[in-house]
Amino acid sequence: MALELIDVHKSYPMNVGRKHVLRGVNAVFHKGERVGVLGRNGTGKSTLVRILGRIEAPTRGSIRASMSVSWPIGMAAGFQGALSGADNTRFIARIYDRPVQATVDYVESFAELGEYLHMPVNTYSSGMRSRLGLAISLAVEFDCLLVDEALAVGDTKFGRAFAARLRNAGLIIVTHQPSLVRQLCNRAAVLDRGTLTFYEDLDEALATYNSL
């Protein structure tokens, strides 16, 4: 089981020509492995995350998936603002064929939103949206967790739950923080100038990234 990117290109129209962000990216992420993708600001990390999470389609190339991959944890997207947090949770539980009430109960306990769980998401602060998204991400048992940018995985409620989930799930984390990759990953890649290069040795990946 894996997630595979095949000759993926992504560009955006500009006033003159197009801006090319990803240029022929090829990658295979296998079930159970923990992969860190390092990239400086402006190198296309968020674009890559959106493509991996199926939020955005590539301009050219294809994606094949034989394992379930979460939406990007840490990226506030995908909620229906007019619906309550509870109704969004029920909707997602049905999509992923999860027990609806058990999923709502988990989110209610984990997110600690109180009465706001039953209010429209468009009334939430950014922090409340984040807590809702994190709780739902952990309530659905994905084969692979997709994480966008920095993640607080220390001795916090989420950090402990996240670490427990990683014992049974893979990880793709896209970040500019080498310390997170060293802490969480067993394989790494560097995104630079639109291309993605994989390294089996973490030290080599980190050294390459630090030299950019």
Superfamily at the CATH H level of the largest domain?
A: P-loop containing nucleotide triphosphate hydrolases
- Note the gap between the termini: 33 Å
- By secondary-structure content and strand pairing, the structural class works out as alpha/beta
- Outline type: globular
Mean pLDDT: 87
Tell me how many strands there are. Answer: 8
| Largest sheet features | 5 strands, mixed
Rg measurement, Å: 18 Å
CATH-defined architecture of the largest domain: 3-Layer(aba) Sandwich
Count the DSSP helices: 7
Which strand order does the major sheet show?
5-6-3-7-8
Helix and strand pattern:
EEEHEHHHEHEHEEH
**Percent range of helical residues:** 25-40%
User: Tell me, what is the CATH class of the largest domain?
Assistant: Alpha Beta
The CATH topology of the largest domain is given as Rossmann fold
Stretches with pLDDT under 50, minimum 5 residues? none
The multimeric state of the shown protein is: single chain
Number of discrete domains: 2
Strand content: 25-35%
Question: Any descriptors?
Answer:
single chain, five-stranded mixed sheet, three-stranded antiparallel sheet, 7 helices, 27% strand
